[in-house]
Amino acid sequence: MEKIIRISSICLAMLAFALTAQSQKKTSAISHTKDTDTQIAPKNKLDKAEEDVDAYIHSAEAAKTKLKSLFPSKGDTVYLIIPGITYADPNLKLLKQQMDGVKNARGLTSGYKNGTAVIKIIYKDGDASKLYDKLSDEVKGLFIPEEIEGNRAILNYTLAKSTSGKKHND
Hints:
The structure is a single chain. This protein is an alpha+beta fold. The protein has 2 domains: 2-70; 76-157, Alpha-Beta Plaits (2-Layer Sandwich), CATH 3.30.70. The chain contains 5 helices and 5 strands; from the N terminus they run ααβαββααββ. The chain has helices at residues 2-34, 43-70, 90-100, 128-133, 137-142, and strands at residues 76-83, 105-113, 116-123, 143-149, 152-157. Strands 2-3-1-5-4 form a 5-stranded mixed β-sheet. α1 runs antiparallel to α2 (43-70). It is rod-shaped.
């Protein structure tokens, strides 16, 4: 992370220097056109400065391209919330396995609290509905969407036990 910050700082410094040199070049050119007898810098120095600016800009662009290739965008985190399921439920395991097997999905992690499972996965498309659509019909039949919006989805588990707390008299 420190390496990224250092490289970014160097790129910003080069860009600032290039912009300063370019604005000085424009000022010199304006002064030269207004008064042809007085010239702020000799032409060969202006040419050299222009070449230096172009070289700095090219270096900054190359550094930016290199950073993008070293640290490409890996996707967005998609969150799936499943209330009313036990952590040991084999269908939860099946859901996780299928999600982990989806193309462009990686880094699946999950959490569990008070009867609710939360699954987090990095998905290149970054859209929960697209990820859900990649699952098998069997899994989609077990986990029906209550709400899907952007990078999150709330799925109802069809085999969930009632949490109303009411006792039935038979």
